[in-house]
Amino acid sequence: MKRRSKFILIILVLILGGGFIYFKSLKTRHKELIKSKVLYTLGLVDSDWKTDLTNNSVTFTSPTFVISNIYKSMEGPKSDQYVVIDGSKEELLWLTSFKTNAVSSDEARIMSNDFVCHTNFEYRDAEHYNRWNLTERINSQYPRITSISNGVEAFNLPDGFGFPVFSNERLFINAQALNHNITDSTFNIKHKIKIGYTNNKEKSLTPLQPKTVFMMFPYDPQNPFKGPTEQLPNACIPVETKNHSYLDNDGNALSGHWIIAPGKYSYTYNTTHQLQIKDSIRLHQITSHLHPFADRFKLKDKTTGEVIYDCKSENFTDKIGLKNTPSFSSQKGIWMYNDHVYEMLLEVNNTTATDQEMMASMAIFYYDPEMENKIKELKL
Fold first, then answer.
1. Which residues have a Cβ under 8 Å from the Cβ of 295 and sit 6 or more positions away?
2. Fewer CB within 10 A of the end CB, N or C, for the chain?
3. Environment class of residue 359 by beta-carbon count within 10 Å: exposed (0-12), middle (13-18) or buried (19+)?
């Protein structure tokens, strides 16, 4: 009996030891997935999403995120959730504003938005477009409404404009924590995510259609971390090859999440194919998603030379993080055309002595005349 107990003990020690070694070998983002799963399963921290509904806004409060390490973008604790604004009825609402705040785990104190990596707002395109009989739009683009990220605490769509959803329509929220600076303590936070809306019975707005465009650069999938070569002079060093990796029409590997070395760098990217402008569009809103050390981000009509959006980001000088990333908003709008070439230009300045990570995308909103006709047909 003693030999059997000793054997079982040895096996348990080996399993635990092997598990510990495996855990230590994982990247930070994968460690956090395991850590959060354990904490939530054991009930050691709050694992539930909470919804607070008012007449003109809905606030979704995330589960608790335990901050116990340095988390660069995409590394911190995160939680995903399908949500509805009001499942008790079906009525047309116009989403008009988006905001995220980090708060203490008891929700009593607002904390620094240094702890907000991103909040992604998405619609389910099959459900959304089937309701409007716009089935040709299903799978035509990634169904993201917009994103709030470090440097962008909130933004409003221009007065008189909104994104139409039904009150009982399922939306998807992805929230992730960030921590670039604090190394000497462990603490808990939550994210409060507020969506402002207008009821269509009170006021009908002009519909906008969202789209996300983003920079990405080639890399050699056989030797991804080598960087530029004679064959790929524009190659980047991807942060990893599993996430934010894409293939172009010729099957070449591209990454939208790449490494920047210390110093100043400039990037350009032709985004014409991402915009997919069939005839012309009238642009009304742009909100950027950038990482620390991004200095300037532009959207340019290369055909005319016009700079449509010039985002001059403000970085903190006493710590790592984006202090402010201005949005573009216009009631009048700016016309963009299918026979023009559009490019994004990014300037970065990595002021540290170590490699950092970079992403650069724009969540744009433009006038949606087809949706406006659908809304009129329904007589809502």
1. 312, 313, 315, 347, 348, 349
2. N
3. buried
Q: How far is CA 39 from CA 33, 36, 82, 159, in A?
A: 10, 5, 21, 43
Q: How far is CA 294 from CA 27, 324, 364, in A?
A: 24, 11, 19
Identity (one letter) of the amino acid at 22? Y
User: CA distances (Å), 172 to each of 82, 125, 175, in order?
Assistant: 4, 11, 10
pTM, to two decimals: 0.90
- Residue by residue, pLDDT tens for the chain (380 residues) are 556 666 666 666 656 555 556 555 657 777 888 889 999 999 999 999 999 999 899 999 999 999 999 998 889 999 999 999 999 999 999 999 999 999 999 999 999 999 999 999 999 999 999 999 999 999 999 999 999 999 999 999 999 999 999 999 999 999 999 999 999 899 999 999 999 999 998 888 999 999 999 999 999 999 999 888 888 888 999 998 888 899 988 888 999 999 999 999 999 999 999 999 999 999 999 999 999 999 999 999 999 999 999 999 999 999 999 999 999 999 999 999 999 999 999 999 999 999 999 999 999 999 999 999 999 887 65
